[in-house]
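B., you asked whether I could sanity-check this one before it goes into the benchmark set. Here's the sequence:
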Amino acid sequence: MRVLIVSAPLIGHVFPLVPLAVALRDAGHDVLVATAADGLDVARSGLPVRDVAPAFDFGRIARGVMLRHPLLARAELAGRGGTRGAGALFGTVNDQLADGVVALAEEWRPDLVLHEPFAVAGAVAAARLGVPAVRQENTLFDGRELVRATVARLDAALRRHGLAELPPPAAAVAVAPPSVLRQDGWPMRYGAYVGGGELPEWLREPGERPRVLVSRSTVAGPGSGGPMRAVVAAAERVDAEFVLVRPEERLARGTLPGNVRTVGWIPLAAALPAAAALVHHGGAGSVYGAFAAGVPQLVTVGAGDRRHNAELVAARGAGIAAAPRAISPDVLTRLLTDAALRDAAAQVGREIAAMPDPAELVPRLVALVR
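And here's what the prediction gave me:
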């Protein structure tokens, strides 16, 4: 079986697709990833990848959408755009991806197309070829709503490829723990390729004091630095060790408190088991990473999906939602000492561990093409 994996051109979108892609490859199937720009970093995983939009520029697209839709832009920056904001942005993204994805599909002739909710260009290609499309979730939204919002902005691409509408997917893969969010589809344990990097020995075991990992977004833009500066400002008055993961250069060069260290790109999932908590910018990958490790998290409320993600974490009781300006020694101390947060995070971790491994879904995907 030949499986075309289609992702938006962003690391945080394509890396979560890798475990199922690898499971398909290891079961003897041919797999090819279609993406562009930053998403091409997935080649480091060993999967074959093709650039379907060589001139793609996410920043330029985002700026253009915001200028054309100023009210929606304001809502997006406040984290209140919901699927409307995602549809406006990723409708334009997929319009630029669609021609390249369809051309690749017509050349490579996949038997199945697997795509994430923000990459409905994959569904366009599947419909064009008449092969099954499968949606794999990688966010904390309902993927059906994301697809509907994106397709509503995709009329031109559909017309270019002779389609009046997109048929529903043959199946969907759901990765959210049900106690946090019920997604439509076959359940699968969340995992993601971590993009390489070596884990220092001192991060493999717990330290003398509770360790808090602090990470930031892989996408440049508003709030990309996340909570790091706020954490640094409060750290000296918290009984913990703080580790800034990939800090901005200016922050890393500055004078840091004695209990703050820095590291470059590391496999975060491998560092989390020895950590007491994670503080991060609110991206879905970071939320899922902390959930899977069963550690409490402080999620900063911000633009795009970050407010939504933070509020889901807080509602489950597995962490704290806070604006960066609200991060204080007391808030960080609570993150480390609140037993209710630890218990809820551990419950979600066990819930994810009990979900089916990606390899268990391979026979179900094969059955779709027989």
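One thing to flag: Residues 82-108 form the longest helix (27 residues). Otherwise nothing jumped out at me.
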